Amino acid sequence: MSTQSRLTVVALFLAAAVTLAQAAGLPLSVRLVTGSKDAGSVDTRLNDVLPLLQQNSGLKSFRLEGEATIDLREGASATLAKGYRLDLSQVQDNKAMVRVSQNQKDLVQTRLSLSEGKPVVVGLDDPAGGKVLVILKLQ
């Protein structure tokens, strides 16, 4: 095999590897949390994001309602507790349009830039009172 042929094979292999990596996407942790201003317990499974939640929300108690891991890729979605759903679109690098809905009713749609290991919180009013927080964390 000539040097040119080897280089062509290597280039095709690298292009295929990059395409497969982009198609698979990076793992994205999605957690649905309810929060309240009333003093109460804090779910220990939220310890990694607790300082962020307490600092920015004014809430005192937090309960993990559901969680999922999806790939950061076009069309990915997560079905969470209480009829909540998260859908990704317009995914480009580590940016995505994120849509949160409940029982097929759109609640929020926003473009987020995600960084590995740094959680992003999307806050919503809970119809039952308190707040609903959707925490996204790129693994």
In short:
By secondary structure, the protein is α+β, with helices and mostly antiparallel strands. It has helices at 3-24, 50-57; strands at 27-36, 61-71, 77-79, 84-92, 95-102, 105-113, 120-125, 131-138.
Ends distance = 41 Å
Largest sheet: 4 strands, antiparallel
Shape: globular
Question: How big a fraction of the residues is strand?
Answer: over 45%
Number of strands: 8
- How many domains? 1
Number of helical segments with 4 or more residues: 2
- Helical amount among residues, as a percent range? 10-25%
SSE succession: HEHEEEEEEE
Strand order of the largest sheet: 2-1-8-7
Rounded average pLDDT: 85
Q: Which value, in Å, is the CA radius of gyration?
A: 19 Å
Unreliable parts: 3-23
Structural class: alpha+beta
Name the features:
single chain; 139 residues; alpha+beta; 4-stranded antiparallel β-sheet; 2 helices; 22% helix; disordered N terminus
What can you tell me about this protein's structure?
The chain has 139 residues and is α+β, with helices and mostly antiparallel strands. It has one domain. Helix content is 22%, strand content 46%. It has 2 helices and 8 strands; from the N terminus they run αβαβββββββ. Strands 2-1-8-7 form a 4-stranded antiparallel β-sheet, with no helix packed on it. A hairpin with a 2-residue loop joins β4 and β5. The longest helix has 22 residues. It starts with a helix and ends with a strand.
